[in-house]
């Protein structure tokens, strides 16, 4: 019978999701996957070269800060699932979704060794007034998910001491001007991290700055520079890895289909989906 063609595990997950009441954050359909159904995961505009040691994400920071690696999971495109995920995490208090997204990033980037040389995870800080109004920092959620998978400690090396307007509706030049002088490095905390680096015998301290969306990269650049400026005598010993859930732009691949990822259907588990992402595309 046609409706019995799928594996038994599919029907088990479907029954479990009905009992638990799990629904996809993007399409709202009942899902056996966690937070986002496999079909919507397949439809996200992933950055195809995100796992390469040097990619177009790195180019946004080359020459501005000592960049080691850069990674963004998918493109931020208005009206698509990628925007829905970002909006839910940032404005709709979907904290669990944010932590899950961090674990997804860590699992996805595991094969390319993105976090192998990272010493500290630094979430992009927000001003205390914005934190009081929103009650949380969306970058903190991503970092908590990454830490859960990698075990890399979370740092607090920089604070946002200048209240700035939202970057959402600003042009590129306005975004860059908006965040100039917005951050201040915590000298004592940075020196402590450098001392720990020396104790471990490492030549450089690699700090991963984690943000939700990269547009011009101005916020990340100013955050990194605040850390360097706080310890000018040892700035040459610090490098950065930039990590974000999304980056502005459009995917050159078009829609990702189950056929491209060698899947029989769109009912795979998140683990199976991640495994399929690292196989060669047809």
Describe what you observe in this structure.
The protein is 39% helix and 15% strand. Helix 4 packs across helix 5 and helix 5 packs across helix 7 (138-150). The protein has helices at 8-20, 38-43, 56-59, 81-91, 95-109, 128-134, 138-150, 172-178, 187-199, 218-230, 270-277; strands at 67-76, 120-123, 158-160, 183-185, 205-214, 238-248. The two termini are 31 Å apart. The chain has a four-stranded parallel β-sheet with strand order 1-6-5-2, with helices on both faces. It has a two-stranded antiparallel ribbon with strand order 3-4. It has two domains: 8-45 and 258-282, no CATH class; 49-249, Rossmann fold, CATH 3.40.50. Residues 251-270 have low confidence and may be disordered. It is of the alpha/beta class and 282 residues long. It is built from eleven helices and six strands.
Order of helices and strands: HHHEHHEHHEHEHEHEH
Could you please say which CATH topology of the largest domain applies here?
A: Rossmann fold
Q: Low-confidence parts lasting 5 or more residues at pLDDT below 50?
A: 251-270
CATH architecture term of the largest domain: 3-Layer(aba) Sandwich
Largest sheet: 4 strands, parallel
Shape: globular
**CA(first)-CA(last) distance:** 31 Å
**The CATH C-level class name of the largest domain:** Alpha Beta
Bin the helical content: 25-40%
The overall strand count is 6
For the largest sheet, list the strands in their spatial order. 1-6-5-2
Number of domains: 2
Give the strand content. Answer: 5-15%
Put simply, the count of helices is 11
What value does the average pLDDT take?
81
Q: What is the rounded Rg?
A: 20 Å
Structural class designation: alpha/beta
């Amino acid at each position: 019978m046609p409706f019995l063609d799928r594996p038994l595990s599919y029907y088990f997950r479907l029954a479990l999701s009905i009992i638990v009441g799990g629904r996809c954050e993007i399409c709202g359909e009942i899902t056996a996957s966690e937070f986002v159904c496999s079909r919507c995961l397949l439809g996200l505009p992933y950055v195809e070269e995100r796992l390469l040691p040097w990619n177009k994400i790195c180019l946004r920071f080359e020459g501005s800060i000592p960049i080691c690696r850069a990674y963004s999971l998918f493109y931020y495109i208005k009206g698509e699932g990628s925007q829905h995920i970002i909006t839910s995490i940032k404005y709709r208090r979907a904290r669990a979704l944010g932590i899950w997204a961090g674990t997804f990033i860590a699992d996805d980037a595991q094969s390319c060794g993105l976090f192998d040389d990272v010493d500290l995870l630094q979430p992009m800080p927000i001003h205390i007034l914005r934190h009081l109004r929103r009650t949380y920092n969306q970058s903190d959620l991503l970092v908590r998910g990454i830490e859960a998978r990698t075990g890399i400690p979370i740092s607090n090396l920089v604070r946002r001491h200048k209240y700035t307007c939202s970057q959402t509706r600003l042009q590129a030049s306005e975004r860059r001007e908006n965040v100039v002088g917005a951050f201040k490095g915590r000298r004592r905390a940075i020196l402590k991290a450098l001392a720990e680096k020396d104790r471990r015998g490492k030549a450089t301290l690699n700090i991963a700055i984690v943000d939700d969306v990269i547009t011009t990269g101005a916020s990340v650049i100013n955050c990194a520079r605040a850390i360097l400026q706080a310890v000018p005598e040892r700035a040459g010993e610090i490098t950065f890895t930039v990590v974000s859930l999304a980056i502005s732009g459009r995917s050159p691949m078009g829609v990702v289909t189950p056929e491209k990822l060698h899947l029989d259907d769109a009912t795979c588990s998140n683990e199976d989906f991640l495994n399929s992402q690292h196989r060669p595309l047809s």
